[in-house]
Amino acid sequence: MALDHAILVSLLEKPGSGYELARRFERSIGYFWTATHQQIYRVLKRMESDGWIDVREVPQQSRPDKKEYSVAALGRTVLAEWLHEPIEPESVRHELAVKIRGAAFDDPAALIREVERHHHKHTERLAHYLAGERRDFTGPDAPEALDTGEELQHVVLRGGIAYERMTIAWLEDVLATLRRLGTAP
Amino acid sequence: MALDHAILVSLLEKPGSGYELARRFERSIGYFWTATHQQIYRVLKRMESDGWIDVREVPQQSRPDKKEYSVAALGRTVLAEWLHEPIEPESVRHELAVKIRGAAFDDPAALIREVERHHHKHTERLAHYLAGERRDFTGPDAPEALDTGEELQHVVLRGGIAYERMTIAWLEDVLATLRRLGTAP
DNA sequence: GCGATCATGTAATCGGTTACATGATTAT
DNA sequence: ATAATCATGTAACCGATTACATGATCGC
User: Fold this and answer.
1) Which of A18, A72, B29, B143 has the fewest beta carbons under 10 Å from its own?
2) Which domain holds residue A178?
3) Based on the domain organization, do A54 and A112 belong to the same domain?
4) Where is the Transcription regulator PadR N-terminal domain (chains A, B) (predicted)?
């Protein structure tokens, strides 16, 4: 399981509340690991009672108070241990591919709209990643020399960009194939 | 949930036993949807009792008898309904990316071996996909004209090939970054 | 007033993983 | 003998998803 570790990494990058973590899982960390606030609160509670993280009540005016979590010594140890364990390359779960193969027993043309929708979403996501890259790493407002953490965040983001570009090109291949099957059956 | 639907697609492509399905989930369908035999037997039992699939006991000599499943009319309907529902583009779960960002709080060089291992595995997987493509779609023993089902299987396989190539290139980027951080900190 | 944002949770369900279990046949 | 392959399951656990739930403040 890696949600624990994803949260530890995020809290090491910057301490924060459950709510703030949930927001980060909609961007940044969320580009390669998803989690909802329900999951996050549950894991935070468990990690706190196990002594992996510390809490600090932060009173706020004009906003509800929040609990700011930060990584405790034990959490750092647990993360370091996990970092040294080998993991298996992920097994892919690609629902759209199941649909594409299923289209052989339905109308392939009926899938075109759906594939176009996915193409659109991935194009948006790519634009979003590229904007983030310009803002944080390659643009005029980015730091001139990146530290280790920033270099690593950048290489992960480059992975996301490469993934979106590959996916967009493949979806275009899928669309061409579906159209060909529709026009000359 | 799509395991149901992945099994229906696979059974439409060719009826078979739980064991045979489990084998297909190690190749073919398994390239984009994973499942273990335990899962498969459970789902087959449920789909049978719901009338989505039919069973036929096949006695075999010199091998244990098997149950051959095929898709019933109801199963085809259920699949067709699912094919017409929109789905959301998958949220990525990339454990290695969590590790890479975590390496900022550990020794980045310690990750090099692990990334090399992943690079090796993805290179093997790519070779395996390419061999399958030559065998079934582009080689001299492949059919000259592909039918709709084969065209769709091919475009899905091309997606797997594109994914592996992209991943291999990215892992090389990661390695170069980790080495740079190691030599000039 | 009302919707959006900030902030934190509980409960039910479900799908996936891991471990356990059995038993026949074929090839070395 | 024994390891590998064929063949089918049960049980426990755990993580993820979905639905439900509360309550404050800010801007329109």
Assistant:
1) B143
2) 95-183
3) no
4) 7-81
pLDDT tens per residue across span B6-54? 999 999 999 999 999 999 999 889 989 999 999 999 999 999 999 999 9
Count of domains forming chain A: 2
Residue that finishes a domain, picked among A22, A52, A84? A84
Tell me the pLDDT band of A184, cut-offs 50, 70 and 90.
Answer: low
Instruction: Report how far residue B66's alpha carbon sits from residue B69's, in angstroms, rounded to the nearest whole number.
Output: 10
Residue whose CA is minimally distant from C10 C1': A38
Residues of chain B in contact with residue A117, where contact means CB-CB under 8 angstroms, are 86
Among A124, A7, A31, A5, smallest CA distance to B91 is for A31
Tell me the two tokens of residue B19.
């064991």
What is the tens place of the pLDDT at every residue in A134-151?
A: 999 999 999 989 999 999
